Amino acid sequence: MKQGSTRGLPGWRFAQGVGALAGVVMAIALYMAFVYAPADALQGDVQRIFYLHVPMAWVAFLAFFVTFIGGIGYLWKRHRGWDQLARASAEIGLVFTTIVLLSGSLWGKPIWGTWWTWDARLTTTLLLWFIYLAYFMLRSYVSDPERAARYAAVLGIFGFIDVPIIYKSVDWWRTLHPGPVVSTGGAAMPGSMVVTLLVALAATTLIYAYMLYQRFWIERTKDEIADYHYRLYERQLAREMREGASV
Fold it and tell me: Which residues lie below 8 Å from residue 241, measured CB to CB, with a gap of 6+?
């Protein structure tokens, strides 16, 4: 395996297939978003941001759910693989949440007349972003890897509580943010828009799966390199102690 490459790792060929499929489905989703789906009767073409914004939000929630599961797995089993999975997924979730906030602002300016408003859903989403930013800050400030993993697992578990709050915020509080586009009462938009949304969601999910594979193995490799350097340090220290004792 070449340095810096995941070639030859378990599941590599499958992951490459997922990555290729993600590219194809995303190309289809972009075509549908800009050509196939009609312009919204009230919002016009700015509504097309919705086909990026909503899938990114859904998959960000999925990423933080995986971090939640990884945190539970690490606290239960104390196996480093669970922590590697949790932090790989949290990193992707943080990136996707950033895109959600930015795309929401791009939509909000022409529709609401402002880049930002302290709406319940926007505020709770921003809180989620800060929680997982703190997740990585915590890991960087705690020098002991095991303690960092343990503290981060707890934060990742409790931080996920904000996800259902975000989802239900439009029901619990008065909010400017649009309600669910698909609910038990049926879709709140034409079928062509629903199909476009579902294709975009599939593309984003595939991208997440591919990125998670890549990030997981990067995190595992980083830990292996850190372990190797620590073993070298121990050997060097032991050799210096033996040489000092023999003098």
Answer: none
Length of the chain: 247
Domain count, the chain: 1
pTM attached to this predicted model: 0.84
Residue 157 domain-assigned (yes or no): yes
Compute CA distances 35 → 22, 203, 224, whole Å.
Answer: 19, 17, 47
Each residue of 71-99: pLDDT tens digit? Answer: 999 999 999 999 999 999 999 999 999 99
Place of tokens 């629903």: 194
Q: 138-142, long-range: CB within 8 Å, 24+ apart, which pairs?
A: 139/87
Residue 26 lies in a domain: no
| Residue 196 structural domain | 45-174+190-219
pLDDT digits (tens, 9 = 90+) for 216-241: 988 888 777 876 666 676 677 666 66
- Asked if residue 116 is part of any domain, the answer here is yes
